[in-house]
Design goal:
By secondary structure, the chain is of the alpha+beta class. It has helices spanning 13-28, 39-46, 61-66, 106-116, 146-150, 161-168; strands at residues 4-8, 33-37, 69-76, 79-86, 99-101, 120-125, 128-133, 136-141, 153-158, 174-175, 179-180, 186-191, 197-202.
Length: 209
């Protein structure tokens, strides 16, 4: 059974718009909505005029479709029941930005990431800053907790592992060899001055020339 049942009688666009807006608002809150149409409103729906007239509707059929309105017609006593189930789109997780310690002064840490690793500072505040290179971002916080740094490790997929290794192999950090691992991929690791470990591997989606 629907959480909300709307009974509509009139055929004016204002009434139809109010019905659609009310149904969409309730559905946005996660409710299942039913709409029963009678008389003029039923005629407008049957004749395909629900989103037309007066003289131009504020909401078109195309926009209602974008709002994920699924219309199913069911005949019932006293009129035709229009049941629309309005489902909110499932949220997507888009990005992760790890928080890592500076290991000392924030300025020193930022100098290392920008001068030696190709990152750019995208924002900075007192005691904290955000850095990014391509699709990889970190938030660096002023903190010298060595246990935190020593236990922080991140695996990063790249487009050209060999070229990145050549770029990073001489940076003032602990850079491991580029080699195949028992789990089946080539990679190398780099431990930055703070103690955070960055592990680089060639992303599986990269096409070889």
């Amino acid at each position: 059974m629907a959480d909300l049942m709307i009974l509509a009688h009139g055929a004016s666009w204002e009434m139809r718009f109010q019905v659609s807006a009310l149904a969409a608002s309730a559905a946005a809150a996660g409710e299942e909505v039913g709409v029963a149409l009678f008389f003029g409103s039923l005629a407008a729906w049957v004749e395909g005029r629900w989103d037309a007239l007066d003289p131009a509707p504020p909401v078109t059929a195309e926009r209602l479709e974008r709002l994920a309105v699924a219309h199913d017609r069911h005949r019932g006593a006293g009129g035709e029941l229009l049941r629309g189930r309005f489902n909110r789109m499932k949220p997507k997780l888009l990005e992760i930005v790890p928080l890592i310690p500076s290991g000392g002064s924030l300025a020193t840490a930022l100098a290392f990431y920008t001068e030696h690793m190709g990152f750019a500072v995208v924002w900075q505040s007192e005691g904290m800053a955000g850095i990014r290179r391509d699709g990889i971002a970190f938030n660096i916080v002023t903190n010298d907790n060595q246990a935190w740094a020593d236990n922080a490790s991140f695996s990063i997929g790249v487009s050209d592992l060999e070229a990145l290794y050549q770029e990073y192999r001489e940076v003032p950090a602990r850079v491991g060899p580029l080699e195949p691992k028992p789990w089946g991929r080539r990679e190398f690791h780099l431990i930055v001055p703070s103690g955070v470990c960055l592990q680089f591997y060639e992303h599986e989606g990269v096409k070889k020339a």
